[in-house]
Specification:
The chain has 714 residues and is α+β, with helices and mostly antiparallel strands. 47% of the residues lie in helices and 14% in strands. Strand 7 (157-161) and strand 8 (164-175) form a beta hairpin. The protein binds adenosine-5'-diphosphate and magnesium ion.
Amino acid sequence: MTARQTAIAEIATVKVAPTQDYVEQAGQAIFGQYVFNDEAQRAYLAKPIHRKLRRTVEGLEPFDPAIVDAVAHAVKEWAMAHGATHYTHWFVPMTGSTAEKHDSFLAPTGEGKTIAEFSGRNLLQGEPDASSFPSGGIRATFEARGYTAWDVTSPIFLQVEPNGVTLTIPTAFVSYTGEALDHKIPLLRSQEAVGTQALRVLRWFGNTTASRVFTTIGPEQEYFLIDRRLAEQRPDLVLTGRTLFGAASPKGQELEDQYFGPIRERILAYMMDLDRELWRMGVPSKTRHNEVAPAQFEMAPVFEATSVGSDHNMLVMSLMRKIATRHGLMLLIHEKPFAGINGSGKHNNWSMATDDGENLLDPGTDPHESAQFLAFLMAVIRGVDDHADLLRAGIADAGNDHRLGANEAPPAIISIFLGSQLTDVVEQLAAGAAKGSRKGGSVALGVISLPELAKDATDRNRTSPFAFTGNKFEFRAVGSSAPIYWPQTVLNTAVADSLARLADDLERLEPGDMAGLGTILSGMAKDHSKVLFEGNGYSEEWHAEAARRGLPNNRTTVDALPALATDKARSLFSRFGVLSERELEARTEVYWERYVKVQDIEASTALDIARTMILPATVSYLGQLAAAGSSRGVAAVADTVAGLADGLVDAIDALEAAQHAAHEAASVHEEAAAFAEGVIPAQNALRAAADALEAVVADDLWPLPKYRELLFQY
Ligand code: ADP
Ligand code: MG
């Protein structure tokens, strides 16, 4: 039997084994079990210290260094009670995955014994040798020091493994010179920026109760699961997370029988284990279901404050991977693991909320609330329109290029879907036509009167990258593998900019001047309606229409990233203290480098597979055909295969030449362009040649597990 056949025979005998006592381990009993949450803090901290810490966590006062040793002691006691032996500072460098370095609590006493030690300083600050993390040139190797600093707003947690426990402290990662080297710091700064500006607007509306505004995030996460025994036989999946080759399966997603379909026992067992682990970590996992493509699934959490929700999404992705391995599965979180069927995204549900519980994008029930809602809504619309190029850049990477605009995901054009009722309101505002006050819950805004706004603004549009869904926006163009810090940082900053201008304008009016407000909003509607689009985002007409409206359409990462190097971008990010010019430049450089590296790895992997797996299989088959005699049928097949083999060899040479040419580029930007324009088309041609061979070469000779096996046999 071939390795593929052996794997499939084994998969056929897989039985789901119970892993948990699900009655005793019910959701409520275990939620937050691994988190140093309020309950644990209460149990391990003296009352006044606990109270102080809570106020800091809630953003109400800065951290008091006087309590740090007491907190560290409590954290250590709590962790050791759970079996922890080590601690780590956990951070998100610009690699896009999380990083951690473990240290044990062990401190020798000098008499052949040890005690457990964990000081306030250990909690507050770490000093990883940072020289191997991408910095975009900020940190020269001679000043390689970087610091991790405890992020008090994100809960401390335990990583519990079968053989031990690690105390894990979420941190921010800065250079020796104080510059952000991670994804967390800019996000926290952007939260501050948007919160400050939103509060100014709220105050104009007479709100005196809120002391803080923050953004909320509920990221829906799509993913694929396939059997590990098959996946491990594909170097492309192992190294790049996506299939670089593979003829279409005779059956794909056309029967539409997967979406919300019954969940296979083996997958449900995985999802149940995943949910339990997430709950223990305090991640409020809520929804699980089959997605559109075969072997594709989705989970969604209950929304949280953006900094916590973003950390939690990293935990979701890493736990998904870990638990998949335990279940003999491989997690594919790439945006486009398979050609010809849907890829995966992340739908970032986003809103702004006050610390006293008001959702600022909730239309509310009375006219005053409606007017305030409309002001925030228009501010978001303007922010997105003004900075559509940056939002596009914020979701740009090699993986997402395969998905955006591919008739399954939003186009690369950033537009906003509002639904018919709100579109009508904005159109009235833009027209500025005075209307008589309507009966009931309407408010005269001078230029228009606001109808009562329905919360369930009913209509949905799957083709929009940025859609209003009743009381929040859904940023639907984010890649499935992306850490969400950066896209949310860009969005927060764009909206902060727009809110700051709105606050400036409002503060020139008397409080309560609704007619004045109407004039401001009317002007905003006039200038920014062009970003609103209710139609089919997949259609050709929209591309033409968007061009006519002057909306940016940056199709690839290479087209999108230059937006980050404009004066507009530099001024925006530095004005709101989110990224200094140097930090922005460094970050952008990291994105360029990353794009080139990913494309380079993919090209090398494709060449390797083509030369050492696909070509040899083809040659074997030609040998078999030659040995099979010279009947007309055999000769015809041999002819076809020989022709395709020639094509394969030519395509290998062409890809190698294109890759070589790209390496000769003078700068990383030129290299990226050479990959986009030269290497990717050559790689696509190589794939086409190989996929054509897959369709004719004898099945038992084919070395790579096929789409029909990967997608349906698990
Ligand atoms: P829908 O079905 O309309 O997409 P759901 O209620 O299923 O809406 O929510 C989808 C996601 O949006 C969930 O993760 C949910 O927690 C999140 N969400 C709901 N309200 C908000 C909000 N105010 N801010 C951020 N995310 C939210
Ligand atoms: Mg949704």
